[in-house]
Design a protein that fits this description.
This protein is of the alpha/beta class. The chain has 6 helices and 7 strands. It has a 7-stranded mixed β-sheet with strand order 3-2-1-4-5-7-6, with helices on both faces. Helix 3 links the parallel strand 2 and strand 3. It is globular and about 40 Å long. The termini are far apart. The relative contact order is 0.16.
């Protein structure tokens, strides 16, 4: 996927929401720090704070200009790559704010390549009309450890939309716990969708 496609959909996460997501993540693990944190589409690396909450942070960002603004702590690294094509795994926590790109705005070649890769690695065959954030959610689940935690700021629509049914079925089939906090106010004024903090706990099975 070309960087300019993601640039058009980038919306920085408000710092108070970043703090809220951290509180929710830490509460899930009784306040214990995470061994490793993955942020797919990490932007300026704002999820790498507070650095005392994790041993090591890995951010993956495609936009060189956004990555250049990152100010990371010593225990963090940022990789310039397409998060859907960069391979790694075993993270204890994956959190972030994936890009919200509707399926009809995705490059068809990139989309089909990603869908095939996800199916090969997870066994989940997402629909071709799945929006980008659905792919990012599945990728986050794939790259976390068997007892890992996924905390993502995503549109609430994935809870009910047919285009995300395969993702929901995958979560149910594995017995993972899913909790969704729906915002009753607009945290992104320019984005015409209802946001949520969605938490998928793979240790609850």
């Amino acid at each position: 996927m070309k960087g300019e496609h993601f640039q058009r959909c980038q919306v920085a996460t408000p710092h108070d929401i970043v703090d809220l997501m951290w509180r929710l993540a830490l509460k899930r693990r009784g306040g214990k720090r995470f061994a490793s944190l993955l942020d797919l589409g990490s932007g300026d690396g704002r999820f790498a704070r507070p650095d005392h909450a994790f041993d090591h942070f890995t951010g993956v960002e495609l936009d060189k200009r956004k990555a250049a603004t990152a100010k990371l702590p010593a225990n963090a690294q940022l990789v310039l790559a397409d998060a859907m094509q960069w391979g790694d795994g075993g993270y204890s926590l994956s959190r972030g704010n994936p890009p919200y790109i509707r399926y009809h705005s995705l490059e068809s070649t990139w989309r089909d390549t990603v869908l095939q890769s996800l199916e090969a690695s997870t066994g989940v065959k997402l629909k071709r009309n799945a929006n980008a954030f659905v792919m990012f959610l599945l990728r986050a689940l794939q790259q976390t450890a068997p007892d890992g935690l996924v905390v993502q700021l995503v549109p609430f629509e994935w809870v009910t939309r047919p285009s995300a049914k395969e993702l929901r079925d995958h979560i149910t089939a594995n017995g993972w716990s899913a909790t969704v906090y729906r915002f009753d106010c607009e945290i992104f004024p320019r984005v015409l969708t209802t946001a949520s903090i969605s938490i998928i706990d793979k240790s609850k099975c």
